[in-house]
Amino acid sequence: MQQPFRFWEVTGTFRYWVEIDGILTAGFTQVSGLQADTEVEEYAEGGVNEYVHILPKRTKYGNITLTKGVTSSGELWNWYRDVVVGKVRRKSGSIILQNYRGYELCRWNFFEAYPVKWIGPDLNASGNEIAVEKLELAHHGLKALHNQLEFVTRM
Asked: What are the residues whose beta carbons fall under 8 Å from the beta carbon of 74, sequence distance 6 or more?
């Protein structure tokens, strides 16, 4: 018996991919900073005492931080290093969340990003944590695309 996919199903935060310039990139262990804040301005209209108008102004987007284990690839460091020496290469990308079946559930596209901060691993001879690096990206906005395809599950 077939049942239609339910769009109200929620999913975990652990099934995602990161694409940069259309290429699936390194296995990031964490992605943070998906946020948008819209400033507002209050306007008190003369003669209206029941409420104050709240008008939208500028929307600001937080920096996206990508965290991954340190590998022999220097791609992220080189991208950041180029910014340090004045050679800014902007790239667009996507953070793609999958549902528990492996289908794309939501995609957040970011535009014209470039690295503004790189953080290397904390090294500790008595620890046993994985060495990770973080890359923080400034960008020109987010666009969320929620998957509206009619998937069919088999029971």
From this structure: none
